[in-house]
Design goal:
2 copies of one chain form a homodimer. Chain A is an alpha/beta fold and about 325 residues long. In chain A, about 50% of the residues lie in helices and about 15% in strands. In chain A, strands 3-2-1-4-11-10-5-6-9-7-8 form an 11-stranded mixed beta sheet, sandwiched between helices. In chain A, α4 runs parallel beside α5 and α6 crosses α7. Chain A is globular and about 60 Å long. The two termini of chain A are about 30 Å apart. The interface between A and B is large, with 54 and 54 residues.
Chain lengths: ~325, ~325
């Protein structure tokens, strides 16, 4: 069984929430190690009467810090310690809800990239009417070359195969029209390379295909991908908010009939359920959880990392990149 | 009162729908001229017993054609004829639901750009919790320079002032983080220029701010803006679809209480209500309606173009660019 290190000091809600999430995940069978200030973590564990292994890390990388510099200057930070555990084999993966940049930098600098991987990438998972869609790069690389996008496609296909058991995942290029020849120079060149790449390339997809079942994997640069991700969150939450506000005008008994019906949707749209985004392309499983992750989000992120490690995600990514 | 030319041959639903929309808009006080195949348009008018002026245009630019070339080679096309009417002063603006590229090309080539405008831009309008947000460029210019983004801000501010009576519209730069220094080289340079520009620049905004009331105008390149636009449509429609499907499980009387409450939201989210996007930066009002515009969408686009012309939109854009 895979062992997952949790950066217990990252996350806006502090170690109490992280420890609570770890306890829940451990109860569900995940082998978790808590990494961070030993006294604080032990105190949280004592409050709940639980027992989990702790690895002491005296420092913390804060949100505003320059990530690469912080990783070099704070080798004893919780996130750098997590990465070192993965590098040394005492963990198979790690989860952090702290600075995304720090998690990326520690993974790249300490764990290291897989052979041939030019740019590690962040993959996010979106709910659709069908099986979930993997979108990458969703923020790690704001500026990319066409060949990077091809590797994002290969790594995203590995994630889709690993988590959603999709055979030969359909890869779409996010673009501003369906026809070949649309978009920027970057997109046109990426299109040509994807046609020749060992992935099931289905051509261009558009922003609205976040909501359709056209593609299993959608690739673009990290600037566009990040806008895509956050716009989806914003538009879905606006729509949900408007609908809930409208329901306030309904009689009480009607509301109490309707609201429970909407619960599964709320859960499906909820980032807490997906737990986090995957950093792909390094020699270990790395899950980046939302900064404001609750106990439930942390537990789901740990479960996701554990599943990824148990199913051989890293080897599958390496295999895809090596084809 | 402003006179608006309607490209009656554009649009997936054909001249019948366009003529019906024109009749509705005319009934609401818009001075419309129908432009296209005279026999077809006259036949549609005869069916409804209505009478509207027609300008005959024997050719049509089709969706797949190269826009600039089509405008040169088909001077008698309905869209080129509309643009010529605006240039010659026999119309103050035009509406087309045909090829966006053809509408842009005819506006740029035939009507011509305003002085100092480097790149005409497409502005879309999004509903929010507060007053609508203008987003540009939403597809005209996939690849831009930082100084183009500054002009998009100026033109968007003019639109926000003209239509929504916003004083000193707040301009946000679409980016992947709120802090200064985020994004691509393009975004960092645009940020610096916007700080010095004669607009009310509030800094970076993110994808999720489509749903908030943080900015009145959001600027970015036309690739990102187009993805933003279509993602919003997709995510909102997915959310709405999931919620409506969930309501199917409710008893019939509950459904019949709830569905009417959702109608105002459906209208608010509906592109038919906004009618279309504005092409800004040319010497006339140009509204680009959705390709699948219904009668109602066409009528709203005509109303929007008429309002823009009556309120001096073009002069306001020119004034903003000249500051």
């Amino acid at each position: 069984v895979a062992r997952i290190a949790l950066d217990a000091m990252g996350g806006d809600l502090g170690p109490a929430e992280a420890v609570a999430g770890a306890i829940d995940a451990a109860a569900g069978g995940v082998d978790v190690v808590l990494v961070g200030d030993e006294a604080q973590i032990a105190a949280q564990l004592a409050l709940t009467g639980s027992s989990l292994p702790i690895v002491h890390a005296p420092e913390v990388v804060h949100m505003g810090e320059d990530p690469a510099r912080a990783i070099r200057e704070k080798p004893g930070s919780s996130v750098a310690t997590c990465a070192r555990m993965v590098r040394d084999g005492s963990a198979d993966g790690f989860v952090s809800a702290g600075s995304t940049g720090a998690a990326m930098a520690s993974a790249a600098i300490i764990i290291g990239r897989l052979e041939r991987v030019m740019r590690p990438t962040i993959a996010s998972v979106f709910p659709t009417d069908g099986s979930p869609t993997v979108v990458l790069d969703s923020g790690a690389n704001p500026e990319v070359k066409p060949e990077h996008i091809v590797q994002f496609a290969e790594m995203g296909a590995a994630l889709s195969e690993t988590y959603f058991d999709v055979t030969n995942p359909r890869v779409g290029l996010l673009n501003i029209g369906e026809e070949k020849g649309k978009g920027r120079v970057l997109d046109k060149e990426a299109y040509a390379l994807l046609e020749a790449a060992p992935v099931n390339f289905i051509g261009n997809v558009e922003g609205r295909d976040v909501a359709t079942d056209r593609a299993d994997v959608i690739v673009t640069d990290g600037f566009t991908g990040n806008v895509f991700l956050k716009t989806t969150e914003g538009a879905a939450s606006l729509t949900a908010r408007l609908i809930l506000a409208a329901l306030d005008a309904a009689p009480g008994d009607v509301r109490s009939e309707v609201l429970p019906l909407l619960d599964p949707i709320r859960r499906r749209m909820d980032y807490e359920e997906t737990g986090g985004a995957h950093l792909l392309g390094t020699r270990g499983v790395v899950v980046i959880a939302h900064g404001s992750s609750t106990r439930r989000a942390i537990a789901n992120a740990l479960r996701m990392a554990s599943d990824g490690a148990n199913r051989g995600l890293v080897a599958r990514v390496a295999d895809r990149i090596g084809r």
